[in-house]
Structure formats: C-alpha cells, structure tokens
Amino acid sequence: MPFVERVFSGVQPTGNLHLGNYLGAIVNFVKMQETHSCIYCVVDMHAITQGVDVWGGPAELTRNTREVTAAFIAAGIDPKKHIVFNQSQVSGHAELAWIFNCVARMGWLGRMTQFKEKAGKDRENASVGLFDYPVLMAADILLYRATHVPVGEDQKQHLELSRDIAQKFNNDFGESIRAQGANDGLFFPLPEPLITGPATRVMSLRDGTKKMSKSEASDNSRINLTDDADTIAQKIRKAKTDPEPLPTEEKGLDARPEADNLVGIFAALSGRSKADVLREFGAGQFSSFKNALAELCVTKLAPIAGEMKRLVADPGHIDAILNDGSDRARAIADETMKLSKDIVGFIRRR
Ligand code: TYM
User: Fold this and answer.
1) How far is 204 from 112, CA to CA, in rounded Å?
2) How does pLDDT run across 103-156, given as a tens digit for each residue?
3) Which CATH superfamily is domain 7-200+314-344 in?
4) Is position 116 annotated as part of the catalytic site?
5) Which residue has the least CA distance to atom 19 on ligand 1?
C-alpha cells in the first residue's frame, strides 16, 4: 500500500527570519497547501542546540517562536486547513528521536557538513544536541510519516540522512513490521526533499559565495522579514555587485555569484525565470536593476512585515493557534508512536 502523501517542514525560532528562509522554504510551504495536507512546525527543540548565548535565552526563544508562527501565517499558511505548531508541545518528537538514535550511526552524523560548520574548530565543546540535530529532524518528519519535505538546498544532506534512517529502521525491524501487517515491511516512507524554484540557495548580499544566514554578523548581508521599506531599499542598493552590466543570457551569470544571486532573488519574488528577468534587464546597468529589485522586495515583503507586526501584538491569539495545531499534530504522532513502540517491542499501557 503506498503512503498517503503528506508534507512536513520546520523553521527554527532563532531570530532574524530572512529572505533566504522565505524564498527557499516558506514560499514553497504556502504553495504546497494547494495540493497536499501540510504540517508546519516551529522547531523550538532544534533552536536550543547551540549555546544559550547564540539562541538568546528563554524570553527570546518564546518571542522568536511566536514570530516564526506569525511569519507562517502572514506569508499565507492557513492554520485551520493545515497544521501549525511548535515542536516541544508534541513529546513524540523526542521519543522517536531516541529510537532513531539507536538506528543512526555515529559515522553518518560525523559526515554532516552543518554540524562541522556550526561546531567549528572546538568540536569537543559542541552540545550533544547539535551533533544529534539531524536525528531529531528525521524524527520530526517521520513522526507524521511525511512523504515530502520542502526545504532550501542547505538541508539536502539532512534529508538524505532521514531517508537512511527510515530505510535502516524498515530493514532492522522488517519482520516485526510485517507481523504488524504494515505496508509490506515498510513502516516509514523515504521522505523526498522538495528543493524548487530559482532561489533554493539565497546568498549573502555582501558576499555572493556565502549563504544568506541568520548568524552572519553584518545585518546588511541579509534582508530580514521584519525590515521596513527604507532598510530593504538601502540594503539592496548597498549589495555587492561587479563592474560589468547584467548579461542578456543565464550563461553569463556563471562565475558572477553576486549578479546571479540578485537575479535569482528577482526571479523568485516575481515568479519568473532568471532567463526572463535577463531578457528585461540584461545589458542594462546594475543601478536601474537594483532600483527595480528594491521596489519588488518592498512590494512583496512589506505587507508580510506589517501582518507579522499585527499578529505578534496579540500573543494570546498566536498561542491559541499553536495549541490547536499541537493537539491535531499529537493525534497523528501518538498513532505513529504506538505502532513504533509495538514494532520495537516496547510494552505499552493498554
Ligand atoms: P532553518 O530555520 O535554519 O531554516 C529554515 C528553512 O530555510 C531554508 N534556508 C534557506 N533557503 C535558501 N537560501 C538560504 N540562504 C537559506 N537559509 C535557510 C532552510 O533550508 C530551511 O528549509 N533544519 C531545518 C529545520 C528543521 C526541519 C525539520 C526542516 C527541523 N526539522 C524537518 C524540514 C523537516 C533548518 O534548517 O531550519
């Protein structure tokens, strides 16, 4: 029996939601609602995997959790038709992560580039949670037996690991799964990453070879979803470029990372292809392209920023959305946990 198609994805509440999060992930979250049943999670448990100085402490975490929820809704996610919740409200995430900890291999996790980047040189001092981050991520997805996961390109390796964990679980417990009569020995689907659109990897505005990121020290390197119109326009005007005019064809963007990035952002925000954008702006000066890009950014992002502001002003309303979403998420999660425990051989209360 094939798995029912279901979408799951998550965003960390670590502050400074930016254009990369929006174009690489949230825009696609919104789109997937038309065709799939979707679950979107504010992954507060992932957010605490780095030092408290990085994630900012309890008050900041609460504030950021509400802000990401507000961003989801302001961008167009419907929390009534789909599910929006925060991870820590559903205990199954931690429970399934434990079972997966015993399935995943140290060697697999040791190869994760995100861990290497975030841990830096002082690996001995990284939290166990940071090392284990991708296992919790696999648990997030598979707790709902989700089949499709919209993410930015930087999450591809983590998705591959989720597939490896699902596959090894299915193999290790194949007999037990068949005994339960589930899906000819397949209990978990192998989730597919959905990495789509012209901006799957939005780069820093200061350096086209570096990913746009929450943690980059310079605020000018990114456009935050909460930036006002003037700030957005100023950041685009200051964005690094090269002295050449824009090319007329996409091939001309090779080896020009800053130009490629800005054209990609324009394409993604306007729903056009890069080739189409270059047909309009190719051979022209950067300054006029930048003016058009700044205007487009403001038109698309200012309404979202405004709506986010309105929503975060009423934390009670946001918390009610998260409570309701968690209740509905828990109902699905509990069923998966019950079956997972039976498959592993844990005796559970009947
Ligand atoms: P986070 O919060 O770091 O990123 C959220 C989403 O934004 C995408 N993204 C980008 N896309 C394009 N260009 C960029 N510069 C850029 N920066 C970030 C990320 O790829 C991501 O899709 N580990 C996840 C959170 C998570 C998750 C999950 C995702 C936890 N459990 C289960 C999917 C399924 C993350 O990177 O969050």
Assistant:
1) 22
2) 999 999 999 999 999 999 989 999 999 999 999 999 999 999 999 999 999 999
3) HUPs (3.40.50.620)
4) no
5) 152
